[in-house]
């Protein structure tokens, strides 16, 4: 009997099948969330539409609304406020972030054919005409919810609708020619970072309080940490970006230098936000925020800086929760400061 003819013990067969099932389940989950490492072959049109919208990217925008509501200093835990904040999260996440991701998929279909051929468009799972319909449905629905929120808040000027229009425009020029901001690593990454942090924060702030110049400046400054988050997403597509002339950070500076730029942007501007909280005498919140930077740096060293191409997803899962918790701490501190004024 040759080695290849050796029978596999039943226990090993069971373990192998369990591992295969686990891998299949993991691949299916990644596919639905829009993450790297998905598989092709999905035929359910609604799952395909969900994959286009990349639900994994909704989380920071939903969280940004929470931070904005906290920093307003006027959010209270009533059923009405909870439902209204949920509507604002729906606008920022599934609708407008879904619009952003779908339009990006549409304009990146040639690059994805190189980097991620299993994506819905390059794999042929959905026709372009249906993608265009999805883009318009998500955009119109998002703007509609924004206007309804303005009506609820009693705004004389529809600020939430204006923010939604502005954010949708930024999303368009980020992905679409001739501007295609993502062609430039600095401009594209900052536009994405501000969309993740500043825009949903402004929405939550305006919904329950007043969007002040101080909050605008602080969140735009904090969005420089979001620039670091945006850079992480570029490591999965270095080959295609280089082939199609997109000047992402890993293409411009090389993988290792881009990784350092990424982590420094995240850490430096989070520490700077902590310093600002000390300046306004929110010392307890500042201490908590600065302590959250420590495990973040630890995971950056353990995973990302050692192999950014291999460990980008693992790094995002382990380190970025501390960044988003830090955002909430900053929001609570600003809201507390408003209450003292």
Describe the structure using short key phrases:
single chain; mainly alpha; 77% helix; disordered N terminus; 341 residues; 15 helices
Q: Can you describe this structure?
A:
The chain has 341 residues and is mostly helical. 77% of the residues lie in helices and 0% in strands. The longest helix is centred in the C-terminal third of the chain and has 33 residues, at 308-340. The radius of gyration is 22 Å and the shape is globular.
State which percent range the strand residues make up: under 5%
Number of strands: 0
Query: Structural class, from helix and strand content?
Result: mainly alpha
Helix content: over 70%
Number of helices: 15
> Cα distance, first to last residue?
84 Å
**Shape label:** globular
Describe the main β-sheet briefly: none
- What would you report as the Rg, rounded to the nearest angstrom? 22 Å
Task: Write down the overall mean pLDDT.
Answer: 88
Order of helices and strands: HHHHHHHHHHHHHHH
Topology:
Layout: H1 10-33, H2 45-53, H3 58-72, H4 79-107, H5 109-115, H6 128-153, H7 159-175, H8 185-196, H9 198-208, H10 213-232, H11 238-243, H12 249-253, H13 255-279, H14 283-304, H15 308-340
What's the gist of this structure?
By secondary structure, this protein is mainly α. Helix content is 77%, strand content 0%. Mean pLDDT is 88; it is low at 1-8 and 16-23.
